[in-house]
Structures are given as structure tokens and as C-alpha cells.
Amino acid sequence: MKKHNFSAGPCILPQEVLQKASEAIINFNNDDLSLIEISHRSKPFVAVMEKARSLALELLGLEGKGYKALFLQGGASMEFLMVAYNLLNKKAAYLNTGTWSDKAIKEAKAFGKLIEVASSKDKGYSYIPKVYSIPEDSDYFHCTSNNTVAGTQIKEFPETNVPLICDMSSDIFSRQLDFEKFDLIYAGAQKNMGPAGTTLVIIKEEILGKVERHIPSMLNYQIHIDKDSMFNTPSVFAVYVSMLTLQWLKDLGGISFIEEVNNKKAALLYNEIDRNPLFKGIVAKEDRSTMNATFVLTDDSLKEKFDKMWQEAGINGLNGHRSVGGYRASMYNALPLYSVQALVDVMQELERKN
Ligand code: PMP
């Protein structure tokens, strides 16, 4: 029996995707060759890359609207740098809502003036700041839609005339948004898409070409666009698994279908956190993430007992991020509702026994 996998990333992927991916490692496309021993320029792999790129745009509703999808390397962390390299001329505005926003700010600082429009750092990133203004002469505004470590999520994005850039690493494809509002979206694959090793970047092409500096080829979005995301050897396996996961999501009914399931999972767990006197949430209720639920025990002396109970129930990956402690239940797209129920059952059993 597979474990209930609440890991924050890399994390659970659909079982049928893992099955197909493992078959492709041995015999891809019935060609008696492995996916990872053929040329990335071979017809079957070029078809995989093209399918992955078009599925990403299709699921987000961005096909034919001036956007390009790329599968790059270097993780979402590389995008902290690439965004600034490609788009920051003089001044950019950033919203600081968590560890990852903070790192994005740090990387971009080398390229121009950074305006931190608001920050929740002083309160341990336990809420999303809502009142701030974005200078109209900013080259862009950058935010993080879901804060994987603290467990908060932006529910409403600001109206702004400047290009809107968003790190959606931990909630892309999990909820319906007006994606056309965004000019650049990036996300490491290892949450809702696939294994670590590739990063999806969605760019509205018209925002490029406005900086003077020389951009090294590997960091240049335009070069990757011109080469159809094949400027150099892509992470073939990670792109293939991402393609399978995106196809899985499409077959299920797309983002609007999975959003309903995700809302049910989040409601089930947060209701228990709020109802059960042995637990409490640690972030503002209105900003709670549907992907990463963070919580603590109200009585620390129960830690050993609780940890033993959830591990015995076949639950994996519930420890909070090392910088925060407590617990974090990550409920990405592939996590079934019954896994959340299994966790809730353990929380109720702990209450009964104490
Ligand atoms: N942004 C967010 C929101 C993340 O959750 C993560 C990774 N957990 C990153 C960026 C960094 O991603 P990577 O490790 O792929 O560089």
C-alpha cells in the first residue's frame, strides 16, 4: 500500500504517471529504446517537448494569446535571477511574503533598484500584506502566489499597469486564476508537475527586448523561445513526466476540476485544525494556503506520541520546514482526499486518547 505522501516537494505524483514514466525508462514509444538514451532532437522527444509546452498553455487558457511556454533548468531559483536579468532596467517592485520571495529579492538586487512594496517578514510571514502601492514607473512587479514554507497564499492579485511576474512554484495548475493578468509565470516542476530538474516558464513575449545589458545565452528568455526550448539539452525525463502529469490533469477535467478537489481537501484539514483543541493553525485564516497547511500542537509534550501515530498510519512528510518547525501538510494535486482523511483520523485519535 502506497504511503499518504504529504511531502512539500519533491512530492506526490499521480500513480499512473509514475507507471507510464517507468515504462518509458525501459521502452519508450515502442522503439525498444529508453527515453533517456535517445537524442533530445529525435522526433519522438521533440514531440514530447512540444506537447508539454502546448498542454501548459492550454491548461492555463493562454493558447494563442502571445505567450510562450519554456521548460528550463536551474530550478525556480534560477528564475529569481533570469527575471531580473531579462526585465530589470532601473527599478522593480517586489512583494515579500516568504522565504522564496525574500530570495528572489536578494538575487534581483544586483540589477537595479528594488522597491519592497510590503513585507510580512516581521510577523514570520504569517499573513499576506494587502495594502500597498506599486510605483507606476517600475519595470515589473514580482510576487509569490503560494508561500510553501509559511503556508500562505495570495487570493487576490493587485491591479497594476506594470508587467506582473509571479512565482507559482507551489500552486500552479491547482486553482483557476485570470492567468492573462500575468506577463511571466514560473514554477519549478517538482510540486504539481513532475520530478525536480525542469522549470516551467510562461512568458508574454512582448515584455522582452527592453533591457540594454548583454544577457548570457543560457539566461536569455528570447534565445530559449527562438530555439523552441531546445537551446541546449533539456531535462528529458523531467519534461516527459511533466507532460504526462499535464495530460493526466487535462483528462481529469483541467484546473477547474482539480480546484474543487483541492478545496475539499483543504476544508477537511483546516476544519479539523480549528475544531480539535490539540491543534492550531499558525497563519491568518483568510490567507491560508490550499496547498501547504501549517499547524502546531497546542501541547508540545504530545509531539512524540503524535509523530509515532501518523508514521504508523502510513503518513509521510508531515514535518514543518526546518526554519519554522511544527507540521506542514502539503496537499498537491495528486494527493487523494482519502489521504487527508487518514491524517484527520489520526488527529481525532490523538484527541480521543488524551
Ligand atoms: N519558489 C517557491 C515558491 C518554492 O516553493 C521553491 C522550492 N520549494 C522555490 C521557489 C525554489 O525552487 P527550486 O528549488 O526549484 O530552485
TrEMBL record:
Q: What is the taxonomic lineage of the source species?
A: Bacteria, Pseudomonadati, Bacteroidota, Flavobacteriia, Flavobacteriales
What biological-process terms (Gene Ontology) are attached? L-serine biosynthetic process; pyridoxine biosynthetic process
Hey, which pathway is this one from? Amino-acid biosynthesis; L-serine biosynthesis; L-serine from 3-phospho-D-glycerate: step 2/3; Cofactor biosynthesis; pyridoxine 5'-phosphate biosynthesis; pyridoxine 5'-phosphate from D-erythrose 4-phosphate: step 3/5
Organism name:
Polaribacter porphyrae
According to the entry, every stretch annotated as the Aminotransferase class V domain falls at 5-342
Q: Which gene encodes it?
A: serC
Q: Supply the name of the protein.
A: Phosphoserine aminotransferase
Outline the subunit composition: Homodimer.
Write out the similarity annotation: Belongs to the class-V pyridoxal-phosphate-dependent aminotransferase family. SerC subfamily.
- Sorted alphabetically, which keywords does the UniProt record give? Amino-acid biosynthesis, Aminotransferase, Cytoplasm, Pyridoxal phosphate, Pyridoxine biosynthesis, Serine biosynthesis, Transferase
Q: What class of enzyme is it?
A: transferase
